[in-house]
Every structure is written in C-alpha cells, then in structure tokens.
Amino acid sequence: MIKSRTMMSDDATRTGGAPSRRPRRTLSLADRLVRVPIGFLWLGVLTIVALPVMIYMTCLYWAVRWISALFPKNRATRANRADREERVA
Predict the structure, then answer these.
(1) Are 58 and 44 in contact (CB under 8 A)?
(2) How confident is the model over 21-71, as pLDDT tens digits?
(3) How far is residue 19's CA from residue 34's CA, in Å, rounded to a whole number?
(4) How many domains does the chain have?
(5) Distance of alpha carbon 79 from alpha carbon 87, whole angstroms
(6) What is the distance between the alpha carbons of residues 47 and 45, in angstroms, rounded to a whole number?
C-alpha cells in the first residue's frame, strides 16, 4: 500500500487508537484567497438557480392537481373491473 505524507488514516481499527481530529491537509494561502471565495460564489449561483426551479415545479404541481380535479375520471377500482380474472392457486 502506498502511503501519502499528507493523508492520515482516520480508521481507528487500522491505527489501533482514536481517529485523528486534525485536517488531512492544511489550507494554503491560495486555498484561502482563491478556492474558498470561488466555492462560496458557486454556492450562491446554485441557490439562485435552484430557487426559481423549486418555485416553478411547485406551481406546476398545484396547477396539474387543480386541472385534474376539474375533470374527474370515473374509473372502476381494481376489484370491481369487469375483465378481472379469478386466480387459481
């Protein structure tokens, strides 16, 4: 097995002790100044995109329910169908 210098095993069964609470890799200055802000911006983009989709899908759901309530279908239940076959065990 190849062991990395930056990766520490958190598996207590392999090391024989309690899992480490240290981060696997320390954040560099580039991580803090570039990657973290980009991550937060991406989270904002996902929120901006997801909220209108959720609202649209909810409105579509209620519109379909209201329209289907206007045109009820009188269907026989499964037990009352004329073409129902009797099962032979």
Answers:
(1) no
(2) 776 888 899 889 999 999 999 999 999 999 999 999 999 999 999 999 898
(3) 30
(4) 1
(5) 12
(6) 5
Greatest CA span in the chain, whole angstroms? 75
Q: Is residue 53 part of a domain?
A: yes
Residue 42 lies in a domain: yes
Decide if 79 is inside a domain: no
Rounded Cα–Cα distance for residues 10 and 13 (Å): 9
Task: Please give the model's pTM, rounded to 2 decimal places.
Answer: 0.45
Q: Which residue has the tokens 């099962």?
A: 87
For residue 58, tell me if it sits in a domain. Answer: yes
Q: What does the block give as tokens for 28?
A: 């560099």
Q: How far apart are CA 4 and CA 56, in angstroms?
A: 48
Measured between alpha carbons, how far is 39 from 42 in angstroms, rounded to an integer? 5
